[in-house]
Amino acid sequence: MTARYNILFLCTGNSARSILAESIANLRGGNILRAWSAGSHPKGAVHPQALNLLRKLDMPTDGLRSKSWDEFTAPGAPRFDFIVTVCDNAANEVCPVWPGKPVTAHWGVPDPAAVEGTEAEVALAFADAFRAMERRINLFLSLPIASLDSLALEQRMAEIGKTADKPTLVR
Q: DSSP string spanning 5-64?
């Protein structure tokens, strides 16, 4: 039987990148991975374009909401094996102390919610963020997680975070 791992994706606002990552990881992770997302200063709502994109791609959206990372430090919260920051602001903040010494990594992705422009330009920014997160999650899922020690996992996850993103050419 394969172990099931818990992963938490962190961002500042928990409205776009970490939400996309949560949805992707829960779908692609199957029986191996269970994902959540949270923010240090949550916006309180998921960005509408994130939900639109996920629905367009037939990705799960049930239960997605913008929430504080404090929710995951309370008694009864899931115990995480992995914590991944997906924005530079969250990576530079003092994070809560997570029980169990989860493996941590930073997978910075440009914030699509910060893009100003036409509806098409904003949609492209969200598509780019989705592709970057999907690629990194797929790389993570290809790791022999059960056979690597925490130091090796941390190194591999750091390498995944440095994966070059290939943005859409049309801007």
A: EEEEEEESS-SSHHHHHHHHHHHHTTTTEEEEEEESS--SS--HHHHHHHHHTT---TT-
Task: Indicate the Cα dihedral angle 96, 81, 105, 146, nearest 10°.
Answer: 160
pLDDT in tens, the chain (171 residues): 467 999 999 999 999 999 999 999 999 998 999 999 999 999 999 999 999 999 999 999 999 999 999 999 888 999 999 999 998 765 566 677 788 889 999 999 999 999 999 999 999 999 999 999 999 999 999 999 999 999 999 999 999 999 877 655 444
Identify the structural domains of the chain with CATH numbers, from first to last: 5-161 (3.40.50.2300)
Q: Is the pTM of this model over 0.90?
A: yes
Cα torsion through 137, 140, 142, 145, rounded to 10: -140
Q: Name the residues annotated as catalytic.
A: 11, 87, 95
What residue has token string 């191996």? 32
